[in-house]
């Protein structure tokens, strides 16, 4: 599509990511590892590349160092191309002395960086969603309806609806009403007949709301006008979209495929484990629209005497006598004899320890990076570069919902045990 030449994508890195803590303790939300070898940011960036959109800004303000490092190592376009993926961290200037105050304010503050790009159309995306979309169809809907703003929407269940911005459309798909995270009676008022969007009667009965996916296509000039209307407008859902509906042509783009907002520990945990299912809702094995990530040139994983099923094993792993079920085993994982992993995410390591370092660990009676002999782990997330000793049990058999371990050695959120990045669990520990 020729119009893509003047389309720039902006991926919002999100706030502090408190609901994903401790996975966001040392990194921004888009940098959180996914599926054993990827990061969340790889999803929207790959969607852009597969849609021929190669001018991409990523806005962040919290813990952006690892995200910046990942992007600079991963996304390098030809010198004969105009393509780039660039991180714009929040900056304080004379005109904008404050950090980003919300999604709309983040875009407002980055507008000076867009002046030289002759932008006609701005595609605004979120950095913490799991889905595969051809944005060319999204843009086609926007251009065909001569819209000032187009919002991608998904049908959702009543149990999910109050967590999203909900909307109503007329028969032609123009948005006529929008409410941000309504509750109670206000929520019930937003019910719609989703059969008009292609759902059958059963699907429509279970998913009677239209939720904003938090991704938008804006006519650039209309967006600039909206952002200049009132500097107190800092959020798309609360202020910009309602104002646009009142005065502009605002259209809906209906998206029926899989989409998951990775905003909480539970949603992150469940979305990851589903990737290892025989028929996952989101499939990395798609040659037409691959998900890109950093090339690491790791050796193939080495497995000896293992019993592994319904799991994904990434490159560079060394596993000896390991039992694993319904789990993700990340890059460079080292799992020793007798380790049992069930319903868990092992993120792996950023580096290999040398033989000398492992020997030194043994002499100091300290765990190596990885998981020691006869350790059992169930319903857990083990972050990167973690050292778990021998005969450890991470089980949460008593069903604790929330707890912070001593000195931040572990956390429990929504019943899921989390060992944070670089954490150490000594021999014989039981949680």
Could you explain how this protein is built, in words?
This protein is an alpha/beta fold and 431 residues long. The protein has 2 domains: 2-274, Spore Coat Polysaccharide Biosynthesis Protein SpsA, Chain A (Alpha-Beta Complex); 302-425, Hexapeptide repeat proteins (UDP N-Acetylglucosamine Acyltransferase, domain 1, 3 Solenoid), CATH 2.160.10.10. The protein starts with 6 loop residues before the first strand and ends in a 6-residue tail after the last strand.
Features:
431 residues, 7-stranded mixed β-sheet, 2 domains, globular, 31 strands, Spore Coat Polysaccharide Biosynthesis Protein SpsA, Chain A, single chain, alpha/beta
Tell me, rounded to a whole number, the average pLDDT: 91
| % residues in beta strands | 25-35%
What is the CATH-assigned architecture of the largest domain? Alpha-Beta Complex
- Name the CATH class of the largest domain: Alpha Beta
Major sheet size, sense and barrel closure: 7 strands, mixed
Helix tally? 11
Distance between the termini: 55 Å
Instruction: Give the structural class.
Output: alpha/beta
Q: What kind of assembly state do the chains in view correspond to?
A: single chain
| Low-pLDDT regions | none
Number of domains: 2
The CATH superfamily of the largest domain appears as Spore Coat Polysaccharide Biosynthesis Protein SpsA, Chain A
CATH topology of the largest domain: Spore Coat Polysaccharide Biosynthesis Protein SpsA, Chain A
Work out the helicity level.
10-25%
Going across the major beta sheet, what is the strand order?
A: 5-4-1-6-11-8-12
């Amino acid at each position: 599509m020729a119009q893509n030449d003047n389309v720039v994508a902006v991926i919002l890195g999100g706030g502090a990511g408190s609901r994903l803590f401790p996975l966001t303790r040392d990194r921004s939300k888009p940098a959180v590892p996914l599926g054993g070898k990827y990061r969340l940011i790889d999803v929207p960036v790959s969607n852009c590349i597969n849609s021929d959109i190669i001018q991409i800004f990523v806005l962040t303000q919290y813990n952006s160092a690892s995200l910046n490092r990942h992007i600079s190592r991963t996304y390098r376009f030809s010198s004969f191309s105009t393509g780039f993926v660039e991180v714009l961290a929040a900056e304080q200037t004379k005109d904008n002395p404050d950090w980003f105050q919300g999604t709309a304010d983040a875009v407002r503050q980055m507008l000076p960086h867009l002046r030289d790009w002759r932008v006609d159309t701005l595609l605004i995306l979120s950095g913490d969603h799991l889905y595969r979309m051809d944005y060319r169809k999204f843009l086609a809907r926007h251009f065909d309806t001569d819209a000032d703003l187009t919002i991608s929407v998904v049908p959702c269940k009543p149990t999910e609806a109050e967590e999203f911005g909900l909307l109503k459309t007329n028969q032609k798909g123009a948005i006529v009403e929008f409410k941000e995270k309504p509750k109670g009676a206000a929520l019930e008022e937003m019910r719609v007949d989703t059969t008009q969007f292609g759902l059958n009667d059963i699907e429509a009965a279970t998913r009677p709301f239209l939720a904003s996916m938090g991704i938008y296509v804006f006519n650039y000039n209309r967006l600039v006008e909206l952002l200049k209307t009132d500097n107190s407008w800092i959020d798309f859902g609360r202020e910009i979209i309602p104002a646009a509906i009142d005065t502009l042509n605002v259209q809906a783009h209906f998206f029926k495929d899989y989409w998951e907002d990775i905003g909480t520990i539970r949603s992150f945990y469940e979305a990851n484990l589903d990737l290892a299912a025989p028929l996952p809702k989101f499939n990395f094995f798609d040659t037409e629209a691959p998900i890109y990530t950093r090339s690491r040139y790791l050796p193939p994983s080495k497995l000896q005497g293992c019993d592994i099923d319904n799991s994904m094993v990434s490159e560079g792993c060394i596993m000896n006598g390991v039992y694993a079920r319904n789990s993700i085993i990340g890059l460079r994982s080292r799992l020793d004899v007798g380790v049992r992993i069930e319903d868990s995410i092992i993120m792996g390591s950023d580096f290999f320890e040398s033989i000398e370092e492992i020997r030194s660990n043994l002499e100091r009676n300290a765990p190596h990076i990885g998981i020691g002999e006869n350790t059992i782990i169930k319903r857990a997330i083990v972050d990167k570069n973690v050292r778990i000793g021998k005969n450890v049990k991470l089980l949460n058999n008593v069903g604790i919902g929330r707890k912070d371990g001593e000195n931040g050695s572990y956390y429990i959120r929504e019943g899921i045990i989390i060992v944070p990045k670089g954490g150490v669990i000594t021999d014989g520990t039981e949680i």
